[in-house]
């Protein structure tokens, strides 16, 4: 039996690799999320008590937005060690037109997206309000309900239900409280389908191409690449809205824009609705937005090649084209 060695020293424990530094979580978003959620609950309560017209739907949309924002607040911000100072909102809004590369590189380190999102939603809201006032709620609702009646079963509601829908929609377009509620619902829906969903798809696409991009970087790129298109379309559309005769404006097709810079001008919507919709996404501003999205993904991410940026941008464009084609094929009468 060996003698004990009092001088024996156990070997040191192996060194553990230091965890790589991580960016902070956007905790300020949680404060906004809680406020929006509480506001949504109050509006739901007002709707249930018949105090706020349409309050249940509006409040539910706001509450959902609050929950989504709170969940997204756990996603860390990107950690970029070397970067310029953050550009102001005015610098980014003006710079995205003539120096987009500088703006997107600044967004890589400082992915501030809220200003662009609010600006886009407000522009959309201004144009929608002016469009309804110019076309009149009666013409918009009558056209929509008449086209619903033409669909036939199983899509068309029964005649008594159609008249109830007509009355409800007229009330929604004339009642100031409901119009504010419609804007609030568009705010919540716009965040989900115009910002969060495209940002998530762009993130997955860049990762599939071998690049790296943070969710908030992707969100900022999505919104700032769309901002010039919205400014051009809504700005020119507001001018054309009062230059053209109201009788020449379509109650459905012109709800988004009056700018005709695409191949849709060569096709009659009533005769070939699907071809018209496909041709309508092939135009000057469409390709300008596609170029901005590709450049933004390249400059806003890390180790993202130009081919990866273009690949993701084109993939999202094709998915959007497929979606609107399917919807138009199912309901072609609305654009006739």
Write the H/E string, N to C: HHHHHHHHHHHH
- Rg result: 25 Å
Shape: globular
Beta-strand level of the residues, as a percent range? Answer: under 5%
Number of domains: 2
Mean pLDDT figure: 89
- Return the structural class: mainly alpha
Would you mind describing this structure in some detail?
- The chain has 336 residues and is mainly α.
- The chain has two domains: 54 residues; 259 residues, no CATH class.
- It contains twelve helices and no strands.
- Helix 2 runs parallel beside helix 8 and helix 4 packs across helix 11.
- The longest helix has 33 residues.
- The mean pLDDT is 89.
What tags apply to this protein structure?
2 domains; globular; 336 residues; 0% strand; mainly alpha; single chain
Task: Give the SSE map.
Elements: H1 27-48, H2 55-72, H3 89-98, H4 100-109, H5 114-135, H6 137-151, H7 159-174, H8 176-208, H9 215-243, H10 273-280, H11 284-300, H12 306-330
Helix pairs in contact: 1-2, 2-8, 3-4, 3-9, 4-9, 4-11, 5-8, 5-9, 6-7, 7-8, 8-9, 8-12, 9-11, 10-12, 11-12
Q: TL;DR of this structure?
A:
The chain is mainly alpha-helical.
């Amino acid at each position: 039996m060996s003698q004990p060695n009092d001088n024996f020293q156990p070997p040191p424990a192996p060194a553990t690799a230091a965890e790589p530094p991580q960016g902070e979580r956007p905790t300020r978003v949680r404060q906004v999320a809680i406020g929006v959620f509480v506001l949504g609950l109050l509006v739901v309560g007002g709707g249930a008590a018949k105090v706020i017209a349409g309050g249940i739907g509006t409040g539910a949309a706001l509450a959902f937005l609050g929950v989504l924002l709170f969940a997204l607040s756990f996603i860390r911000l990107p950690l970029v060690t070397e970067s310029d100072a953050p550009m102001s909102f005015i610098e980014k809004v003006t710079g995205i037109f003539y120096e987009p590369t500088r703006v997107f590189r600044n967004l890589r380190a400082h992915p501030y997206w809220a200003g662009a999102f609010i600006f886009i939603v407000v522009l959309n809201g201004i144009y929608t309000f002016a469009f309804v006032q110019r076309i009149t709620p009666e013409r918009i609702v009558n056209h929509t309900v008449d086209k619903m009646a033409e669909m036939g079963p199983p899509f068309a509601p029964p005649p008594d239900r159609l008249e109830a829908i007509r009355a409800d929609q007229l009330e929604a377009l004339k009642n100031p409280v409901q119009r504010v509620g419609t804007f609030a619902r568009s705010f919540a829906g716009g965040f989900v389908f115009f910002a969060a969903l495209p940002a998530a798809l762009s993130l997955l696409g860049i990762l599939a191409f071998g690049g790296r991009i943070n969710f908030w970087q992707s969100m900022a790129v999505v919104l700032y690449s769309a901002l010039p298109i919205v400014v051009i379309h809504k700005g020119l559309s507001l001018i054309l809205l009062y230059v053209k005769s109201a009788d020449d404006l379509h109650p459905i097709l012109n709800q988004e824009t009056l700018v005709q810079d695409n191949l849709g001008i060569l096709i009659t919507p009533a005769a070939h609705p699907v071809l018209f919709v496909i041709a309508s996404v092939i135009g000057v501003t469409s390709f300008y937005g596609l170029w901005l999205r590709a450049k933004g993904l390249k400059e806003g991410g890390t180790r993202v090649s130009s081919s990866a940026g273009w690949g993701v941008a084109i993939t999202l464009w094709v998915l959007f084209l497929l979606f609107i084609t399917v919807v138009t094929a199912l309901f072609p009468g609305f654009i006739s």
